[in-house]
Amino acid sequence: MKELTKHLRLMGLFTKRYIMSQMEYRTSFFTILIVESLILLSKLLYTAVVYNTDMVVDGLKPEAITLFTGTFFIISAVYGSIFMFNFTNLQNSVYDGSLDIAITKPISLQFYLTVSTIDLAVPIPNFIAGAVMVTNAWKTLELSMEPVVIIGYVFYIILGVLMLYSILLLPPLLSFWFVKSEGISHIVSGLSNFNMMPMAIYPKALKIFGTFIIPIFIVSNFPPLFVLGRLNVGMKLWGILAPIVFFLGARIVFKKAIQKYSSIAN
Amino acid sequence: MNAISVKNLNKVFTYYEKKEGFQHSLKNLLVRKQKTKEAVKDISFDIDSGDIVGFLGPNGAGKTTTLKMLSGILYPTSGEVQVLGYCPWKRQKQFKMKYSMVLGQKSQLWPDLPATETFRLNQYIYEVDEKKCKMLVDELTEYLDVKHLLHVQVRRLSLGERMKLELIASLIHSPQLIFLDEPSIGLDLVSQQKIRSFIRYWNEQYKTTVMITSHYMKDIEDLCERVIVINSGKKLYDGSLCDVNYMFKNIKIVNLELSDEIDDMKLAEFGTITKKEGLNCTMEVHKEDLHEFIGYVTEKLNIKDINISDIPVEKGIELLYR
Predict the structure, then answer these.
(1) What is the complex's ipTM, to 2 decimals?
(2) Does any CB of chain A come closer than 8 Å to the CB of residue B152?
(3) Inter-axis angle of helices B115-125 and B130-144, to 10 degrees?
(4) Among positive and negative, which fits the CA dihedral B58, B60, B62, B67?
(5) Domain architecture of chain B: domains with CATH
(6) Interchain CB distance below 8 Å, A14 and B121
(7) CB spacing of B113 vs A17 below 8 angstroms
(8) Predicted confidence pLDDT, tens digits, chain A (266 residues)
């Protein structure tokens, strides 16, 4: 518990310093704010477009589809805030040898390299757009406001984040073997975009692949499917089990990867 | 008591070569022949607690690789190491709390923020009491004369100023052992001197074990009684700095101040001319040839002065590198 508190506090300290570093460059800081605000506007426009189509997928009306898209945006916000920044940094620090100092610090290396710093600028538009879409869909579809449904939705979002972390961590870890692995990272992060729409629109083979082989659909398809009552018991259990199994797998690969670190010659 | 104990340490790296040109880049993209390099070969030594030991060698000798293995950054290929009673590459928290690593060519300071922000972060990472940390930072900034730099963005500082703050950041948790990898690289003479006196002060004050690599002989002469010299990954010498030249006891340095010009070829019959400027000449002469050489010099040459000495430490180390 003491270690967890320490690491959560460190997360705050790293994030604070990262934001402070960005604020040292005023022009860049304000440009980011403006750009992110424009992105937010474009996401909200996208919401309006999806909402105004009469597309029906597997019996899901446009309102229900926005529940999937909104959930995807929320999870993308988490990805953008924590993983994207840290995972890119991880690959860079393997490449330029700056990992050396990090290894000597008495904190969890996996924590330091993968979740220590939160980028708050990038995820805000995604989060706001996602939250607007989900709230609107929830209201329009008159979905249950029972605590069990809301808690279940949040629970599957957390599991989705865990799943996304475990899947997207693997390509950056390859940099310990191959030094550069951006290409594979792009492929895998591209896979997560399949979640923008309900998995029902994809062919059967892709559904099986995205549910059981590389369970990318667990990330942001399972939470709305749970809310809409379209997850059977087996799928509910798989949605819980798969993220845990993949997280443990990612942990094992991380430990193996760090042993391969060869630094760089001075 | 040993702070560091190393037995038969080895490290093999794999790498590949690429010849010049686009064609070879293309070839390399498809097929590359992997090669191996033994960076560290069967090195063994012990270091007592509280000692300052110089770890010397030419570029590419394996010094930094060895330090990185001792600090747990790298896994060795084989060998046994105990540092402060721990196996470094297990990277236990208790171990990491007890040592510090300063890499002259890599910084732990956040470049866009003042150094105090890194100090605060390290205080939290190493779980140091705030009051104790403040006292320590006050003491160190006073000694190194960098108090006025504490609120300046690190990237605006000179190399010497940054290194002083780097040292402070690495000492926040009062480590029992410090690895210093070329701490004075690129610094001016005054900064080098300040860093040296600080390391000496810290070692005396807190009985901290220090293992230092440096290409500046003055760093080593001022700080280390014992040196370990390696080259091509192999240990060549481990002992007192003063005795380095004992290995070359059979070679004497002869300085001649001549009155007239003389043919170099004639002098070269007795040894190696290492320096010749006008009528001043320095030679390395084998002890067995010294008697005959002195006879020749005093009888046949017109000399103003002659001086015979042992090989200086710096020269001894240079010879070891060869």
Answers:
(1) 0.80
(2) no
(3) 140
(4) positive
(5) 2-19+34-245 (3.40.50.300), 250-321 (3.30.70.1150)
(6) yes
(7) yes
(8) 788 888 888 888 888 888 888 777 777 777 877 887 787 787 777 767 766 777 777 777 888 888 998 999 899 888 888 888 888 888 888 888 888 999 999 999 999 888 888 877 778 888 888 999 899 999 999 998 999 999 999 999 999 999 999 998 988 888 888 767 677 777 777 777 777 778 888 889 999 999 999 899 999 899 999 999 999 999 999 999 999 999 999 999 999 998 888 877 65
